[in-house]
Structure formats: structure tokens, C-alpha cells
Amino acid sequence: KRAKKTTDIDRTLGLTFGLQLRMIGGNSADKVSAILDKYPTCHALNQAYEGCWCEEQEKRLLADLRFGTSNRTLGVSQSEKIRNFFRLKDYASHEAGPEVC
Could you tell me which of 19, 63, 70, 86 has the fewest CB atoms within 10 Å of its CB? Predict the structure, then answer.
């Protein structure tokens, strides 16, 4: 019974994370799906950002992620938008973050 409850919580977190990703301009359903396949929750993505040694690496973390039937990459610009949304204390003013490479 406990495993089902954990699975339900994980599914809910993934859906919430997917909705947050969709709020970021330029993110299509295909892009969000590709991100969720690799990072099923916001916590998983933030752990990956924590593993980066500098801001530039964080900005490029999702750049090579492939999505959709065309197998295109997400790109540096979109990767940076997503990084800023989840990592900056004040998203609008772009303050904070790790050291610059």
C-alpha cells in the first residue's frame, strides 16, 4: 500500500513540475515531455543543477536534450530560460546563482 502512495505522490509532483515548465515561454508539450523523461521532478532537476560546478554549466544543462519527432535539441537559450526560472532567487531581475565560470 505504501508503494502506491509514493507512486501517486511522485506522479503528482511530476504533473506539477510539468505545469511549471509549460509556464516558461518557448516550452512546447514535446519539450516538457523530454525534460520530464530525464528529470521527473523539480527536485531531480535541481539536484542536477547542484552538481554543476559553475553558472555556465547550469545554463547549458538542458541544451543538448532532444525532443519531438524531429529530434531537435532544446538549445542554450531555452535551457538558460529554464535554469533562470528555477534557480534565480528573483527571476525577473536575474539576481543570485552560482559562481561564473
Answer: 70
Contact 34, 79 (CB under 8 A): no
For residues 87 and 97, is the Cβ–Cβ distance under 8 A?
A: yes
Tens of pLDDT, residue by residue over 26-46, are 999 999 999 999 999 999 999
For residue 24, what is the DSSP state? S
* Residue-wise DSSP of 35-101: HHHH--SHHHHHHHHHT-SSHHHHHHTTTT-EETTTTEE--HHHHHHHHHHHH-SBTTTTB--S---
Predicted confidence (pLDDT) per residue in 48-101, tens digit: 999 999 999 999 999 999 999 999 999 999 999 999 999 887 654 444 455 555
- 39: alpha, beta or left? (left if phi > 0; alpha if psi -120 to 50): beta
Rounded (5°) CA angle 13-24-58: 80
